[in-house]
């Protein structure tokens, strides 16, 4: 692929540089649909859609320097997200230098991360009933509108306070995700170091504060690292009745959705297996991938055959913080009622 060619001319004793540019080849036109999916994880129409989303932030105001088009910037970002390889390798494939890839990935990630509230939200109105029905078909669990879990993204050791990011002897960012039965991410928190427990991330989230004051029309299912709350159902640690065992089975089947969601997210965007950037840059990239994941899922963008399964790293169970005793008591009352009425 042709890159920018610089030619320099000198006149007299004073150096004068004249730039002559060769336009970049149009990647969208030179690849087949299958090749676009393999290289960028999106086809022609979705790529143009993504470019239109970030255009207000990434459209250059001047053509004096023949800057990269928005479409070209998006392709650079998508290529990095899909491959997770070095900037130099991405640049060689796209036809730009390493520093340009670094700048573009940073800028495109910020632009996409700024759209998270537009693409990530809990179901509302008619969506609630549809979501409950899909979860019921998935695991026979009633009244469920979401599943919650955290996933770690491995990053390089930061220059400051690196000990805060260490989990399982690696530097990580711990990300809270809530998803639905269609594997859409409906809530997320992306900012905490890997050493922070899942329960604390929940407790200090806007979602927790909102649902503690405004009761949710439904429940969210989580594993035993989370507290049992009126709106957050966890399994019985030791089922003592057949009904409790049935509840645990349904709960487990329902929670499979969040495990599949995490797997698909990291399969589609291989960069999330290791980010060679500082924490703030990593958070922007993770948020960008979350937005792109929801776009891909809603538009039924297929996973390519060459995208392999990336196993979720084994993590030690987090120790949840001590929640208010009344919260646990009310949560147990709700769970007992669910078991009595449905199991």
Overview of this protein structure:
Helices cover 47% and strands 13% of the residues. The chain is elongated, with a radius of gyration of 23 Å. The model is unreliable at 1-25 and 307-322 (pLDDT under 50). The longest helix is centred in the C-terminal third of the chain and has 27 residues, at 242-268. A hairpin with a 2-residue loop joins strand 4 and strand 5 (170-179). The strands form two sheets. Strands 3, 4, 5, 6, 7 and 8 form a six-stranded mixed beta sheet that branches. The chain has a two-stranded antiparallel ribbon with strand order 1-2. Helix 8 (126-139) packs across helix 11. It is of the alpha/beta class and 343 residues long. It has helices at residues 27-30, 33-40, 44-58, 70-83, 87-94, 98-113, 116-119, 126-139, 198-203, 206-213, 242-268, 279-298, 325-342; strands at residues 9-11, 14-16, 144-154, 166-167, 170-179, 185-193, 219-221, 232-233. The protein has 13 helices and eight strands.
What's this, in brief?
It is built from 13 helices and eight strands. The protein has 343 residues and is α/β, with parallel strands linked by helices.
Features:
hydrolase; 13 helices; nucleus; metal-binding; Nuclease HARBI1; two-stranded antiparallel ribbon; six-stranded mixed beta sheet; alpha/beta; 343 residues; disordered N terminus
State the total count of DSSP E strands.
8
Tell me, what's the shape? Answer: elongated
Q: Could you spell the SSE succession in H and E letters? A: EEHHHHHHHHEEEEHHEEHHH
Tally the helices: what do you get? 13
- SS class: alpha/beta
Arithmetic mean pLDDT: 84
Report the sheet-strand fraction: 5-15%
Spans where pLDDT lies below 50 across 5 or more residues: 1-25, 307-322
Distance between the termini: 62 Å
Calculate Rg over CA atoms.
Answer: 23 Å
Main location: nucleus
Subcellular location: Nucleus
GO molecular function: hydrolase activity; metal ion binding; nuclease activity
Cofactor: a divalent metal cation
